[in-house]
């Protein structure tokens, strides 16, 4: 049996998808990954086959920098970073406008490339990143059944009354202007209409006009795999979802890092893990305030600074573990708490480890995810651009004081049946 995984050329997308494939690999079955060259080493590290497939202009092997992107994509990335400095609504508006050009990159040509891969590999099952719209368009037009993996809050697939790109919930710390929110909603609706027209035009170009839709963002595969814990999603919304499975988390294995192990064993004092992921680590100004707050609390810290300017962070305690990149899964397994931007990998891996979160959401579904964590009592959310050092310190103190019983129960459930097992069972109809 052959499993085909289709992923954009981004480490943050490929890692959870590849982890799902390990259940097939460990069963002695063939796993083929279709992705770009930037993440080839990740595919190799899992022991999978790789076929070349370019789904977009940009790429990210682990830490993204604008200067490493192709012309056009570099300016778009800088524009996104600038928008995050202006505020929540501005960032969401920037992302909505960018979708007019980004989500369907050379759609007909790319779709045909995807179809060639399917014809070559002849897979028995296909899983694809939900955000790989050109790939899903290709599979739809090709008549190939597939499961799409939603790497984020389930609202990434909007239901009736929702619009793609507009958070269905805001964390308590965010109080956006009502007029600005209304304008954002209308922008997201306009972009949805424009995207749907582009989707339908591509279907025409692929000879599949009979598959035209009234809402491209509402399209989905034969099975939805939500890389998200059911316990963080409102049951009333779950009841409205198409055929799906909440797989909880897709926690990857990491090689042992002796220096990290030495740091962990050097002290029994509780520590906080800090990371803003591969994109938003560029916000060194926010990271500097976070680290100042943790230092003021006298906490031990492991921080992955990513693409942040090290000089912007100031002088940090010598006892801290400070690197550009750290083994996140390993550190979360021992952390007392974590500070995050609210990305899907960070949130689901923290929930699996039973680690409460201080969430500083910047963009996309991070706001809805932060609100869900607050509602469940698993975290505290603050606004990254305005939270002061004192407010961040208070937020972390509140995180460390959260009750642990419900989070411990969720962690035990996620560890007992890993996401890769849940996904394989769902794909095989078991």
From TrEMBL:
Supply the alphabetized keyword list.
Answer: Glycosyltransferase, Transferase
> Which InterPro entries does the record cross-reference, listed alphabetically?
Glycosyltransferase_28, UDP_glucos_trans, UDP_glycos_trans_CS
Q: Which GO terms describe its molecular function?
A: UDP-glycosyltransferase activity
Tell me the Gene3D superfamilies matching this sequence.
Glycogen Phosphorylase B
Q: Which CDD domains match?
A: GT1_Gtf-like (cd03784)
Q: Entry's SUPFAM superfamilies?
A: UDP-Glycosyltransferase/glycogen phosphorylase (SSF53756)
Gene Ontology biological-process annotations: antibiotic biosynthetic process
In the record, the note on similarity to other proteins reads: Belongs to the UDP-glycosyltransferase family.
PANTHER family, alphabetically? Answer: STEROL 3-BETA-GLUCOSYLTRANSFERASE, STEROL 3-BETA-GLUCOSYLTRANSFERASE UGT80A2
Protein name, as recorded: MGT family glycosyltransferase
- Origin species, per record, is Conyzicola lurida
């Amino acid at each position: 049996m052959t499993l085909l995984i289709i992923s954009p050329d981004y480490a943050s997308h490929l890692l959870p998808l590849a982890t799902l494939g390990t259940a097939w690999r460990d069963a002695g079955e063939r796993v083929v990954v279709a992705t770009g060259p930037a993440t080839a080493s990740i595919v190799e590290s899992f022991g999978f086959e790789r076929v070349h497939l370019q789904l977009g202009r940009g790429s990210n092997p682990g830490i993204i920098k604008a200067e490493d992107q192709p012309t056009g994509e570099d300016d778009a990335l800088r524009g996104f970073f600038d928008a995050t400095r202006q505020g929540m609504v501005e960032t969401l508006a920037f992302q909505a406008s960018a979708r007019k050009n980004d989500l369907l990159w050379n759609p007909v040509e790319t779709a045909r490339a995807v179809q060639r891969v399917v014809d070559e590999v002849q897979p028995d099952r296909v899983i694809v990143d939900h955000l790989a719209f050109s790939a899903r368009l290709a599979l739809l037009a090709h008549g190939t059944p597939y499961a799409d993996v939603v790497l984020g809050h389930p609202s990434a697939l909007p239901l009736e009354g929702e619009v793609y790109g507009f958070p269905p919930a805001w964390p308590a710390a965010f109080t956006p202007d009502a007029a600005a929110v209304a304008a954002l909603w209308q922008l997201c609706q306009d972009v949805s209409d424009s995207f749907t027209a582009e989707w339908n035009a591509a279907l025409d170009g692929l000879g599949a006009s009979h598959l035209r839709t009234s809402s491209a963002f509402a399209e989905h595969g034969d099975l939805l795999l939500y890389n998200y814990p059911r316990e963080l999603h409102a049951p009333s919304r779950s009841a409205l979802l198409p055929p799906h499975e909440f797989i909880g988390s897709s926690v990857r294995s990491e090689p042992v890092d002796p220096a990290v192990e030495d740091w962990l064993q050097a002290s029994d004092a509780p520590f906080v893990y800090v990371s803003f992921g591969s994109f938003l680590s560029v916000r060194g100004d926010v990271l500097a305030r976070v680290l100042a707050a943790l230092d003021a609390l006298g906490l031990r810290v492991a921080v992955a600074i990513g693409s942040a300017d090290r000089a912007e962070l100031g002088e940090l305690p010598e006892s801290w573990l400070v690197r550009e990149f750290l083994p996140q899964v390993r550190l979360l397994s021992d952390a007392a708490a974590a500070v995050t931007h609210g990305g899907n990998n960070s949130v689901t891996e923290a929930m699996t480890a039973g680690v409460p979160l201080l969430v500083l959401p910047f963009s996309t579904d991070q706001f809805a995810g932060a609100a869900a964590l607050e509602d469940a009592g698993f975290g505290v959310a603050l606004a990254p651009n305005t939270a002061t050092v004192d407010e961040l310190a208070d937020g972390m103190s509140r995180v460390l004081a959260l009750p642990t019983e419900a989070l411990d129960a969720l962690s035990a459930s996620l560890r007992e049946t890993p996401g890769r097992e849940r996904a394989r069972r769902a794909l095989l109809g078991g």
